[in-house]
Design brief:
Layout lengths: L1 H35 L8 H8 L3 H7 L3 H19 L10 H17 L1 H5 L1 H7 L1 H28 L10 H23 L7 H15 L5 H15 L2
């Protein structure tokens, strides 16, 4: 009899845990939808709860405040950004793969556009998130540099002179990529971000490095990015 009770308790615990995870995931997806919308910077936990038709208390059980929700979203942004700059597994980093990596970054911008639109504000509000972001930026820089070094090794890119400019090229590429959404929001009366805008941001980031690429390689890479504009 004690065994049966223990087994039932374990099953119940697993069931409760699964439901809790499902609710937390639903909260994150609902929050992402509202945060990405125009005016998302003003979204509160009460707005998210109302959007999901749940009580504020139920949401609070999973996330105590808006900052905790965004902290829970951030690892997804980090994972996608690092996937786009991960070391290549093949014998050569060709133009198709290099262009597609820009598109992976593009999809990250699109899916999490609130984060890049409100980046400075979010980091200023939450020191924990700011520390995580700085650590992510260091990893992103290292991987981005690794991609450029691979292109140089493959003969698809010339090395900048002086050599220290390679790191500056990496920084410029990252700055353009992360700042594009915020720039659009600042210069438009209605900061609605479209997929075409995100493709344009990917193209701008590519153009930072394009002058250092072999001509045929650059043309082929740009064609991969441009095709996404019409898709």
């Amino acid at each position: 009899m004690p065994r049966a009770n223990t087994l039932t308790a374990r099953r119940t615990s697993r069931g409760v845990g699964t439901r809790a995870q499902g609710t937390a995931e639903r909260i994150l997806e609902g929050a992402l939808e509202l945060l990405n919308a125009p005016g998302g910077s003003a979204v509160t936990t009460n707005h998210i709860a109302a959007h999901l038709r749940m009580s504020p208390g139920n949401l609070y059980y999973h996330f105590r405040n808006r900052e905790e929700i965004i902290r829970a979203i951030f690892p997804r942004i980090e994972a996608e950004g690092l996937a786009a700059t991960a070391p290549p597994t093949g014998p050569e980093l060709d133009a198709r793969e290099f262009g597609e990596r820009h598109l992976v970054g593009l999809r990250t911008l699109w899916r999490f556009r609130f984060f890049f639109r409100d980046l400075n504000q979010l980091l200023a509000r939450d020191p924990t998130l700011a520390r995580s972001f700085r650590a992510y930026e260091k990893r992103l820089h290292a991987q981005y540099r690794g991609l450029f070094e691979r292109l140089i090794s493959d003969g698809s890119m010339r090395s900048p002179e002086p050599a220290a400019d390679l790191d500056r090229l990496v920084v410029t590429s990252i700055v353009v990529w992360t700042s594009w959404i915020a720039h659009l929001s600042a210069v438009r009366p209605r900061p609605d971000i479209t997929r075409a805008d995100v493709v344009e941001g990917a193209l701008l980031s590519f153009l930072v490095v394009a002058p250092f690429l072999d001509g045929a390689f650059a043309t082929a890479t740009r064609a991969v990015i441009e095709r996404h504009r019409a898709s």
